[in-house]
Amino acid sequence: MNSYVPILFMLGLGFAFAALSVFTSLVVGPKRYNRAKLEAYECGIQPTPHAAGGGRVPIKYYLTAMLFIIFDIESIFLYPFAVAFNKLGLFALVEMVLFILTVFIAYAYVWRRGGLEWD
Amino acid sequence: MSFVTAYGVAAALPMENPTADFSDTPWWVALIKAVGVFVYLLISTLLVIWFERRVIGRMQQRPGPNRNGPFGLLQTLADGMKSMLKEDITPANAEKFIYTLAPLIAATMAFVSFAIIPLGGTVSMFGHETPLQVTDVPIAVLLVLAVASVGVYGIILAGWSSGSTYPLLGGLRSTAQVISYEIAMGLSLVAIFLYSGSMSTSAIVSAQSSLWYILPAFFSFAVYVITMVGETNRLPFDLAEGEGELTGGFHTEYSSMRFAMFFLGEYVNMFTVSALATTLFLGGPQAPPLISAINDNMFGGGWWGLLWFTLKLWVFMFIFVWLRGSLPRVRYDQFMRFGWKFLIPITLAWVVAVAFIRGAQLGFLGDSKLTFAGRELSVATVVIVSIVAVIALAAAWIWDDKRAAKAAAEDEAPPEEIDPFEGGYPVPPLPGQRLAEPGPRISATREPVLSTASTTSATSTFAKEEDHG
Amino acid sequence: MTSTAEAVGFWVLAPIAVIAALGLLFAKKAVHAALGMALVMCILGIFYIMQKADFLGVIQVFVYTGAVMMLFLFVLMLVGVDSSDSVVETIKGQRWASFLLVIGLAGVLFFAIGAAVIDETTVQSGMDKLVATNKETGNVTGLAELIFGQYVWIFEVTSALLITAALGAMVLAHRERLSPRITQAEWAAKRVRDNKNVAGLPAPGVYARHNAVDTPALLPDGTPSDLSVSRVLVARDQVATTDALRDVERHMAREIEEGGSK
């Protein structure tokens, strides 16, 4: 048996449980219509018809996601390096340090330009 | 339990493939184990919510839930049942399909990662010798990270599909927070892989048989513990649901069981990250050092592992609760600054340092040895460790100096005498300060007097003049 | 050649992947399209794992589903849901140029795939080699040996790609701060210096019937205080009137008076 199949078991169990619970509450729970209930939540004042900014996201998050990808890819290269380090030797260590330093240039640039500030 | 023999060249080169043997595990035994782990998680969640409320209660000098069942143990079950019997509201603005999908993703993904966590040693189950672990794969730890990154979809989709302001902002914050801390978490794990030479959980656990990785990778452990709190959106990092700003964050609009699924997901995620910490840093299901010495490790392995694993897991759960009971929530910009400007660069530096230390141990940087106190040490290891230590000390020193200078700059001794009406507004005296005799200013004319105590700044004079003008 | 389990997995997942990919093309809402693509990425990851490329499969899920699709979602949410329907050409001739490029890409893909050797013995021997490597050296170690051996130059160049990505993101998304950021403490100092509303703005009205930020507080003479409601609410025209509340107040005052005289 493939060793990944039990992971699918867990996935299936989790999904079945979640779907069943949500479904049960839909069946068992009361349904009393009230217009106010269906409005967006607001602390007393009239709720706005749409979410803030028409449901749009500040552009700031784009930068965060992009930086996330960059470091994600860096760590992806670090994993095989770390696992195989005992077989790779000094050459790989030097190469890896070079790689980390180069990516660090990007990081330093973003820091200097204020891309990591959050206010 | 010498450091050098455990991690030095003498040790056989580790294999990256799992050491746990699943060859005698038919699919139905795996399914039974999966169901077992699932039930274990559900019961643990029920318990931990009760535990959290009781412990927080103790910390705040109140009893906590104590009515339903013995010691209030059934409180969570009652809450769950009650939430099932509540109305499930879908707001008119919501994107119906995604609104339902989001809690399902959040809850489902939380359970998946536990499949690769080793809960105990090899046991006999229905006539089959099988490890107490649902499964293990060569990239098990990465799988946890991958599943976590899919789980984030639950949060962002919930926030977006609610069609309401608070959930949108909360969902975004939460997502940005989780992905930011996932980097530092991922980087902190690299040190473990460097030592163990494997990403399979069973191989990592067996590589820790002589020394738990919490010692050689102590810094990774610290970073991991911080990031695991950030990953699970728990206090002091629960900014996504800062009640004062965002009501409930991404799940503001959710009710009934769909809300409960997020709640369940959060707690199961807490167990998952804690279980991973146990596996990677605390030797997983291995017996603690002193107990493992008793009678040739008679309390280790097999079903005993489940006990040790659960105990270690609950230590982390207690830490989660303890943090919640004692720390205030941080501000969002502080949180992001800490993650991006401190944790990530310092973890990268640590990874490079560990790579050099490990390279020295493996003899990549020269083979010369020296004998110290009866032990053979490689010169390269000593040199690298000293360099790292010196750099760390220097960094700490500079940082401390800067902080001391800053504190000194701020910590001017307050003047002994204070004029409470100096700036035009009444100011109470600090402890030990004497009140100045009320000058002529208090009288009807209230002329600005420029030559009062030394603290009279240009601004306060300005304010006074404006007050009169 | 293919085991039954693998065949079953393929025939179950492949149609889902195709449907999700079609969803990417034809979904009305941009976020649905992005979700379809995320599903395709996940299934691709599972396919890789089924093909015994464990590391590649999990990285596919980790990087593409986790990071890249998250970026897509952010971008879609950034531009708003409706703008995907826009069919106005911003650059002239863009459509024809993209059409030509698509034809070119399709041609390249066609010949590349056509030139690939896919006879059974070659594929089988490649598969056998992979399985042997997975067993003896390990999947990840084998990959690492390739990265730090044959492909080390490409690996180093990747870092340049990452720098470019950071640069591009900064150019596109970063708003340079022209003046230093004013901290909370500085605002407080400024308030005292200006000597205006030193104790903060007045709080909004709190009444027995209505308690919200959109209700202005009443000044001693009964007029509503504009300072007590947020500018945003004024701009949105969402400020509640206090007339009704004043009436209630008057009514209550009268009742109290009547009660006193009885």
From TrEMBL, chain A:
It is found in: Cell membrane; Membrane. Gene3D superfamilies: NADH:ubiquinone/plastoquinone oxidoreductase, chain 3. The keyword Glycoprotein does not apply. The chain crosses the membrane at residues 6-28, 61-82, 88-110. Its main location: membrane. Keywords: Cell membrane, Membrane, NAD, Oxidoreductase, Quinone, Translocase, Transmembrane, Transmembrane helix, Transport. InterPro entries: NAD(P)H_OxRDtase_bac/plastid (IPR023043), NADH_UbQ/plastoQ_OxRdtase_su3 (IPR000440), NDAH_ubi_oxred_su3_sf (IPR038430). It catalyses: a quinone + NADH + 5 H(+)(in) = a quinol + NAD(+) + 4 H(+)(out). GO terms for molecular function: NADH dehydrogenase (quinone) (non-electrogenic) activity. Pfam families: Oxidored_q4 (PF00507). Its EC number is 7.1.1.-. It is a multi-pass membrane protein. NDH-1 shuttles electrons from NADH, via FMN and iron-sulfur (Fe-S) centers, to quinones in the respiratory chain. The immediate electron acceptor for the enzyme in this species is believed to be a menaquinone. Couples the redox reaction to proton translocation (for every two electrons transferred, four hydrogen ions are translocated across the cytoplasmic membrane), and thus conserves the redox energy in a proton gradient. Belongs to the complex I subunit 3 family. NDH-1 is composed of 14 different subunits. Subunits NuoA, H, J, K, L, M, N constitute the membrane sector of the complex. This is NADH-quinone oxidoreductase subunit A. It comes from Terrabacter terrigena. The gene is nuoA.
